Amino acid sequence: MHPSLAVPELLFSVFRESVLGQKDLGRLSLVCSAWSDIANIFLWRSLNSLVPLLRLLPDDAWSISPGYGRHIEFTLERKLVAEDWSAFHKHTGLVRHLRLTFHDVLIQDQQHMIQCLPATTTVLPHLRTLVIIQAPYYDPQFDRLLADFVCLLTPTISSLTLRNIALWNDTDWRLVISHCPRLTEVTLFDRPVPDLGVGTDDSPFYTTLFDALVTCDHLARVSMDVSIPYSDELLRSLAACPGLEKLSFGLEADEDGFEDDGLPLHPAAIPYPGFAALRDLTCTRGTASLIQSIITCGRKRAMSSIDLLVGINTDEELSGVLSTVHAHCDHQALDKFSLDALRDTEMWPDEYEVIVTLSKTMLASLAAFRSLSVVVLQGIYSISFDVADWEDIAGWWPELKEFHLDMNTVPRCPLSALAPFAYHCPLLTALTLPIDASVVPGIEDGSVRSGDGRKGTPAPSLTLAVGASRVAHVVETARYIKLLFPNITSLISDGQPFRKARQERRAWQEVMQIIRATAHHVAQTIG
């Protein structure tokens, strides 16, 4: 062996920077003792299961059989004694990241193994990240399982991820969290698991968990992506959590406090200040009043993203949400604002009894957020804008990359409404405006202007969605759009049901074909 291959620093650098997989690292660990010590550092750093460690137990103590899906199932064949754990403990100190799935090992075996460990043993003394994932089935023993795994929760853990374990309502979360004094990040993901065969209310789980998280001195980031029934107690617990930075939630229907469509009637009052660390808010099912309660319990919120799918039934509700964002969010921080009114997707605008109308005055609430790069307003099928308003609107957001109105919005925007976006928004990559192309502006009237762009930066490719409306002059429309957006790569004319707009779609397809043919001719000429 070349002497350089025995230099620990060189081996450490090679093993760390290489693209070797677990099997290759395993083979390297068998070359010699010098290589083994270093290869094992990376071989055991991250584990997707406890099974690799459990295989270090004596061969006669365990067996493996096929389990759920692609997983294997580890089963004990005899009782364990203290001497069986020697090889196991030799490697546990190398583990930094563990993904724990409870269907890898039979629940009764997991409990038995933990009971066999010496009382003073710290199973994973240097663990940094722990991901706990519930099995895809329900078992009453889950209620006590996490308490049995407290020995895995070492003081060194800084990141804890919990996925689909809301059925553990009886867990003493204060005891669990107390074993992680250095905890800085918690991630929660919970969506209903089909065919569990049990009816549960997840609110007590989250309430007790967040009551425990309040006691974490170093907690800096909590991300939550859950679907839960509404609860006043849970809302207050969330608001009190000092590290809740990213909140993504959807409300489930419940019999108490909900309207017929499954949304809460009156959200709880949140003590001020609440949600102090909130930066990213996503709601996949909720109400305008609930969103306003969350945002208004703080001032100058440094929100970076607001993404809402909420019930908007009146102009006042729409105006209230937009004005609340304006009044309580930092105007320099917000990068994305998306609002989709909660509607029945099988209905079309002409079938709605109540139409919410978006006006320039309402939208002006977002004008102060000059750093916005994404603005989305879907599910709002009526607008009240003058032709001249588009010049102001496009000028509000110089960093704009995406702007989307619902393609079914009426009245449709004139073709000239595209020009301000071409001039004021050099970074634009996606634009959705319901266009009326019955009149094509003249090139000589000054409506086509060249934007100032970004020096040294080529204009990005653009996807333009226009809905399905009448095109009076296909060639002139194609020429006008191509002059505005030389880098257009896609033109979408969806929106109304196909049977209602077949001719209009065909016309817009011809517009895009002409644009592409023009671009191809220019490319050949330059070449």
Secondary structure elements and pairings:
Elements: H1 8-17, H2 22-28, H3 33-43, E1 46-47, H4 51-54, E2 62-66, E3 72-76, H5 86-92, E4 97-101, H6 107-116, E5 129-133, H7 142-148, E6 159-163, H8 173-178, E7 185-190, H9 203-213, E8 221-229, H10 232-240, E9 244-252, E10 280-287, H11 288-296, E11 305-311, H12 315-328, E12 336-341, E13 357-359, H13 360-363, E14 374-378, E15 382-384, H14 389-396, E16 402-405, E17 413-414, H15 418-424, E18 430-432, E19 435-436, E20 462-465, H16 474-484, E21 488-492, H17 502-526
Parallel strand pairs: 1-4, 4-5, 5-6, 6-7, 7-8, 8-9, 9-10, 10-11, 11-12, 12-14, 13-15, 14-16, 16-18, 17-19, 18-20, 20-21
Antiparallel strand pairs: 2-3
Helix pairs in contact: 1-3, 2-3, 9-10, 11-12, 14-15, 16-17
Protein name: F-box domain-containing protein
InterPro entries: F-box_dom, LRR_dom_sf
Organism: Schizophyllum amplum
- Overall pLDDT, averaged? 78
Main β-sheet: number of strands, strand sense, barrel status? Answer: 15 strands, parallel
Give the strand line-up of the largest sheet: 1-4-5-6-7-8-9-10-11-12-14-16-18-20-21
Range of strand content:
15-25%
InterPro entries: F-box_dom, LRR_dom_sf
Protein name: F-box domain-containing protein
Domain F-box: 8-47
Pfam family, one: F-box-like
Describe the protein:
- This protein has three domains: 1-43, Monooxygenase, CATH 1.20.1280; 44-219, no CATH class; 229-384.
- The strands form four sheets. It has a 15-stranded parallel β-sheet. It has a two-stranded antiparallel sheet with strand order 2-3. Strands 13-15 form a two-stranded parallel sheet.
- The protein is elongated.
- The chain contains 17 helices and 21 strands.
- Helix 2 runs antiparallel to helix 3 (33-43), helix 11 runs parallel beside helix 12 and helix 14 packs parallel to helix 15 (418-424).
- A hairpin with a 5-residue loop joins strand 2 and strand 3 (72-76).
- The chain is of the alpha/beta class and 527 residues long.
- InterPro entries: F-box_dom, LRR_dom_sf.
- Residues 8-47 form the F-box domain.
- This is F-box domain-containing protein.
- Pfam families: F-box-like.
- It comes from Schizophyllum amplum.
